[in-house]
Please model this.
Amino acid sequence: MSGPLAFVLRRVLVTLPVLLAMSVLVFLIIHLVPGDPVRTMLGFRATDATVAEMRHQLGLDRPLLDQYVSWLSGVLRGDLGTDLVSHASLSELLAQRLPVTFELAGLSMLLAVLVGVPLGVRAATGGRWTRRLTEGFVVLGVSVPDFWLGIMLVILFAGLLAWLPPSGHVAFSDDPVGNLRYMALPVLTLATGEAAYILRTTRSAVESVLGRPFVTFLRAKGLSPRRIVQGHALRNAGPAIVTVIGIQVGVLLGGAIVIEQLFGLPGVGKLIVTGITQRNYPVVQAGVLAIATAFILVSLLTDLIVGWLDPRVADAAS
Amino acid sequence: MTTLGLPAAPRRAPRPRRPGRLILLGLLALLLLAAAAAAAPWLAPWDPEEMDVIGVMGPPSAAHPFGSDVMGRDVLSRVLFALRASLLVSTSAVLLSLLVAIPLGLVAGYFGRWVDGAISRALDMILVLPAMLLAITFIAILGPGSTVAALAIAVIYLPILARVMRTGALVVTRNDYVLGARARGASHLRVLLTHVLPNALGPVIVQASILAAFALQLEAGLSFLGLGVQPPTPSLGSMLADGRDVLTQAPWVEIFPGLAIVAAVLAFTVLGEGLRQAFDPEGVAE
Model:
């Protein structure tokens, strides 16, 4: 079987074992805790009876495979278990937290692409000063830790200028303008570093396309530089840029964990960190599972887009 | 061609490369930072733990060049000691990762076939999670602390370093001198150590230097979350977390530790870039 449909099917099929492997890893988190995880959770003052009860409640007294199968079937039905501290349903908790993280990551990536791609094209085609300025931006963007950049932005925009709130969150559905005001600094923080990566990738991808013979031909044919870049160079550089965007979504989701903490955003990252400090393992598992699944699905989507942009990739894979 | 005023002429190798300068600059900066960190007990004007109740959140002054923090501790002294912890965690993470990645990648690239398949697939498993999430998962299991943070960062870098080593070994193994050595009766181990490793190590060292820069940022991020270096030992990341609530009143508490991170990251980046130009012209390292 070949053709685009086969490519899509193949990619989806390859993703399934990856998801499965990730689910095993997440399931094992609680089992890999050295010593007795239940003891660790409850503290050393807990009675043996309490420990035994908790162990039973978590199903830890059953055979491992049995536990995995029932955990996974629960996950597939949307039942992620309960928060040990607040006793809330983890599915409901994630339903509240995920939109915050996705909004943060999505807006950051959008801004990074809107800035990084045009600047990258300019860097590939512009003069010496354009190159130097963009190179400086890349070096700083890659070397400055994003959360420190965030702190500096807070000092500037929330402290000195008092334009934006330093931290906090309101839901978009409650107050769209307020939501964006709270999101502005975290998004700017995450987007700056990402824009530097995307700029660098775009620059080198466009540069390498511009060196190919067909571009010389287009030039000889009399096409304007603008049309060469927009109609041909960018089109051919697309797959490389999309691939990096896909990889960077993972970096962004990881970075969001720190940024959420910095800006007091109630996202999944903050949930995971609080879960770790409280030794609330089910919460950690649910949070990691959600972020990792999102990451794997974005990788799949990236591959599909690259295959669609560049049919040669799809053909080679079939 | 360029006389037509088209800006998009192919521009290859626009400037002469001077890797020596970059390597020297990076090494010099690193040595300076490492020396400052190592000599912290003698260089620091104050005890990093000493609290001066009157001077709480004092701005930079002659006595406290970087100001003092929420508890009246001297920021300069703390930055020097924190640099110690941060450099120690990040470099030991990379070294630890190298120690495992080099043999794995070497064996995978040299023997190929199922050995390569098994090692590569096993390492791919690590890439299932984004780096920061994997580090945090690791800490969720083993508990917070600087050793666990270093271990987590080492695991994250394992597949990257091993892959670069594997590619290098794969290329070198195809050379006739390797075949010749084998024909002369040299053992696999001898061929690996005397022929393959020395000729394939360049890109791995380049990659390690680049990753050290990221390790510093990862460590700072983890310590910022309270999951890395634990108090009372100061680390650059945890200093940033300590000053989080007062950052508009006492920005110096946040500015100086951050500048120290940026300086160290830049030093590793410059060194890595110089090494890349010198030892990895084909760009095997990512």
